[in-house]
Amino acid sequence: MNRRFWLFYEFNRSNYSYDIMGWIYASLKGYFGGGYSTGYSNEIDGIQFSDESAINPDAELSVARLGLAGVNSTTRGYFGGGWTGSVSKEIDGIRFSNESAINPDAELSVARYILAGVNSTTRGYFGGGTTGSVSKEIDGIQFSNESAINPDAELSVARSMLAGVNSDTRGYFGGGSSTGISNEIDGIQFSDETAINPLATLSVARYILAGVNSTTRGYFGGGSTGSVSKEIDGIQFSDESAINPSATLSVARSKLAGVNSSTRGYFGGGDTGSKSSEIDGIQFSDESAINPSATLSVARSDLASVQSGSL
Questions:
Q1: CATH 2.120.10.80 assigned to 10-307
Q2: What is the rounded distance in angstroms from the CA atom of residue 31 to the CA atom of residue 202?
């Protein structure tokens, strides 16, 4: 998923100093939405980045579903697509400032599920998935007015059950399943919405995986190779070369989702053979594995993620 902006503001007046940096940091959170537990879920829960405590806001998805994807602006998180018993065009989500539910009029151009999301500062893009057959589609939402968008760009390889990461300038879709399990990395150039297809591929081909990113690298975690995986691999943004850090997930699983702060990436939920509430991940500075004590409020798989204060 995506990277947060650091905001610092210090106000000095009449010998008083008002430092709101701590308040801003404390407001940064990762949210996991939807999925499947004992049925289709409208749950939104997550993690507070500052102290890695579990959160469970009152907001819920407008439409309970599984196999959806997430994108976010600086102020709102959007969940797109999914499966309700049939493929969905739905876009709903959460307003970060007060953690209230939102349901914009925009919908996906093509109804589908088990898709992935990436975003620029101005637009969210949903890529791939299946309509009943695997899709190359990239569509999405304009953040400024919450209108639907449908750029000409398509994935280089049609597939579902993929994951997304993004740099400042490009969104990358990794892994998935087409005619078989894929190690493909392709995506979209944000500036002109053209398709991209770097030479890098995943170190381990797999599907139903998740993505997180630092400012310099995108990491794909978990998934299935035919059995559940602990793998974390990815892409170096500067030269689009493949990376394969030694860190692995604490718990091997598939059908999970990812969020990140500026310093750490967190993988939440999924399926180990049973539904999981696990949150584990990676420390960006040294690429070591992390395993905070926080867990999801509701164990589930096939969920999606967004985060506040970040892109």
A1: yes
A2: 26
Q: What's the rounded mean pLDDT across residues 163-172?
A: 98
What's the first-to-final CA gap in the chain, in angstroms? 8
What's the chain's average pLDDT? 92
Residue 3 has pLDDT above 90, yes or no: no
Q: Tell me the average pLDDT across 125-146.
A: 98
**How far, in Å, CA of 152 to CA of 259, rounded?**
28
Q: Would you mind telling me the total number of residues written for the chain in this entry?
A: 311
The radius of gyration computed from the CA coordinates of the chain, to the nearest angstrom, equals 18
DSSP conformational letter for 301:
B
pLDDT score recorded for residue 300: 98
- Residues 200, 226: Cα–Cα separation, whole Å: 22
Cβ neighbour number for residue 108 with a 10 Å cutoff: 24
Q: Round to whole Å and give the CA distance between 162 and 117.
A: 9
Q: Is the pTM of this model over 0.85?
A: yes
